[in-house]
Amino acid sequence: METQFIMFLLLAVATLVGAAGVALSRNIFWSAMGLLSSLVGVGGLYVLLSADFIAITQVLVYIGGVLVLIIFAVMLTSQIRDVNVSNRSLGLAGGFAVFFVVSLLLSFVALWTPWKLTGQAPIVGTTAAIGDGLLGKWLLPFEIASVVLIATMVGAIVVARKEVKLD
Amino acid sequence: MGHLTLNHFLVVSALLFGFGMLAVVTRRNAVAVLMGIELILNAANLNLVAFGRYVSGGITGQVFGLFVIVLAAAEAAVGLAIILAIYQMGRNIDASQATTLKQ
Description:
The structure holds 2 protein chains of 2 kinds.
Chain A: H1 2-24, H2 28-48, H3 52-77, H4 92-112, H5 127-134, H6 139-160
Chain B: H1 6-26, H2 30-56, H3 60-90
């Protein structure tokens, strides 16, 4: 149990430092690297929560897909050394006010609510159960998700393509 | 100390949400705003999985989290496509200056 707690602390620190980097770094590329650290940390926390399949999906989809897309967008839309693109819009004071209000409120709600805890289950693999569920109980949302994904793909291609003007 | 409980994960998730909110509110670069949205989605997902383990039991929370990941990927693809289209139009991705959808 002690090892788990140390791992939790390391992963939480990686997650939160990365998230702080996303929010505060002046350089947009360092923000992307902060997002990488944060996503890896959350993936590790999923393992501690006995959610192995979600952890692997996090690495595959977020780090292998979304983060690469974001870095592509960073490279395509700004000079890496350009610091002017990341000006503050609300100002740091207002931003930190929002940050403290939101996270303190959520933490107090989380700590003071008497959650109905069930006994702590052992950490076991859940991939087989999720596979059964996706092809049984959750078949309809699974199929709808595939339709949503293909609609998204077509939409993204249509929006991002260059218009060819035929004169 | 020394024993993981639901509260640990909830506090991490609350702070993650706060940082995501901070990025969305303070950054002007549209790509950075999108990164903040990803952080917020991750915080929500962490809550879903944590509640699934400590409160409801079973795999319902994890399946819900899986669908959230799918929708987050779709949202990122469309969002970045829109950002690229705006950049091609005006060479600028300042979220406060993108006020037109068409030239």
